[in-house]
Amino acid sequence: MRIANLAGRLVLLTEAGAVDVERASGQRFAADPHTVYARWDEFTAWAAEAPTADAEAFDEGDLRAPSPTPAQVFGVGLNYREHAAESGLGLPDSPAVFTKFPSCLTGPTGEITLTGSTVDWEVELVAVIGREARNVPAERGWAHVAGLTAGQDLSDRTVQLAGPAPQFSLGKSAPGFGPTGPWLVTPDEFADRDNLALSSEVNGEAVQKGRTNDLIFSVPELVARLSAILPLRPGDVIFTGTPSGVGQARSPQRFLAAGDELVTTIEGIGSMRHRFTDPS
Predict the structure, then answer these.
(1) Alpha carbon distance, N-terminus to C-terminus of the chain
(2) Which GO terms describe its biological process (predicted)?
(3) How far is CA 206 from CA 182, 195, 261, in A?
(4) Least CB-packed of 84, 122, 235, 274 within 10 Å?
(5) What pLDDT was estimated at residue 88?
(6) Where are the domains of the chain?
(7) pLDDT at 163 over 90
(8) What does the radius of gyration of the chain's CA atoms come to, in whole angstroms?
(9) Cα-flanking dihedrals φ and ψ of residue 222, to 5°?
């Protein structure tokens, strides 16, 4: 199953197009995409038998973040072996977790304003929670995931690394620095949900390429580790980490500039496309 946020309305995606959930369900489910995660089991049961005769073509430019207003947004650093190596650091014993503030979230297309000359790309698989998780063992982690989407953990490296202690959350939370999309895909749709190809391209040049089987802490393991500390709520978003190829680790270093186009792709999900503009 695939669902999307189409201009602020929850839709179910079919081969024929988009089905407006509020209208198709006779207002049983609200138009607000965020509200569906708190009723995920009820919704998926309905969606399996949902009427699709009124499916309509849609403009992908109208797509927004699949979980637009989560209570919590988690980022995980150094979660790919090759990325840890290019950063000159050893493999972590536990997830390196930081926060991306929810106001940074945006949709899968459009313009993003740069905050300076050191903004970096980081393609990431993003998991959205569909069932509350507290002290969940890893073997049950996938049962608490509503679905997967593509994301970019855009990072202003100057802000991130300023001061006596790193400011990860601030450096990664400027407006637009958390694009997700183009839609949410439920885990059952993937032939191998633990081994997906992901990539970034800048102006048509491949800058990142990896597979999620290189994750140090897998999606269910992250659910387990996080839920052991605090409750994960329906709609919460987890950016699971980035593979190697970030601009900061290059020699010479390379960062995003005004006019650059960033294309983010994950196997079985789809692509996002963003263009960057000068700081105001």
Answers:
(1) 40
(2) small molecule metabolic process
(3) 20, 20, 12
(4) 84
(5) 78
(6) 2-64, 73-277
(7) no
(8) 18
(9) -65, -40
